[in-house]
């Protein structure tokens, strides 16, 4: 990136989103069957880093399904984690079209928090019952 450009931090605007869509399509046309070079996209977008461009595309613009996970999707995620505790968020997201690794990660973390809160409630109830008897 050129030294005289200022990197923008914070929310993307519609113009930037449209520009990244156009540049990704242009890149795919120029270099079919190649992974996207985010450095290439960064140079076209300007004022945003390659990492910002990649994350914006991956987590917001590339056919991302932002609706809540369905019960079937939740079951599949939990089953995949049970079958292979070391499976990555990326590997799980590949089995759920439209769902990003970030969506998967957030679901798993929420489930962990729910489980911890449930254990704490059970322990509290057990200690109350123990005191009362």
UniProtKB/TrEMBL annotation:
Residues 4-65 form the HTH myb-type domain. Residues 9-61 form the Myb-like domain. Gene3D superfamilies: Homeodomain-like. Pfam families: Myb_DNA-bind_6. PROSITE patterns: HTH_MYB (PS51294), MYB_LIKE (PS50090). It comes from the Eukaryota. GO terms for molecular function: DNA-binding transcription factor activity, RNA polymerase II-specific; RNA polymerase II cis-regulatory region sequence-specific DNA binding. GO terms for cellular component: nucleus. InterPro entries: Homeodomain-like_sf, Myb_dom, MYB_TF, SANT/Myb. This is Homeodomain-like protein.
């Amino acid at each position: 990136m050129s030294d005289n450009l200022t990197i923008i931090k914070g929310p993307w605007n519609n113009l930037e989103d449209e520009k990244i869509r156009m540049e990704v399509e242009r890149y795919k046309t120029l270099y079919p069957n190649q992974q996207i070079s985010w450095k290439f996209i960064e140079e076209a977008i300007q004022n945003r880093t390659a990492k910002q461009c990649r994350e914006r595309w991956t987590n917001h613009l590339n056919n991302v399904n932002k609706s809540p996970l369905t019960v079937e999707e939740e079951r599949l995620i939990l089953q995949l984690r049970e079958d292979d505790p070391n499976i990555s968020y990326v590997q799980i997201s590949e089995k759920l079209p439209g769902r990003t690794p970030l969506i998967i990660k957030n679901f798993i973390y929420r489930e962990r928090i729910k489980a911890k809160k449930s254990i704490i409630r059970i322990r509290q109830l057990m200690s109350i019952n123990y005191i009362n008897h």
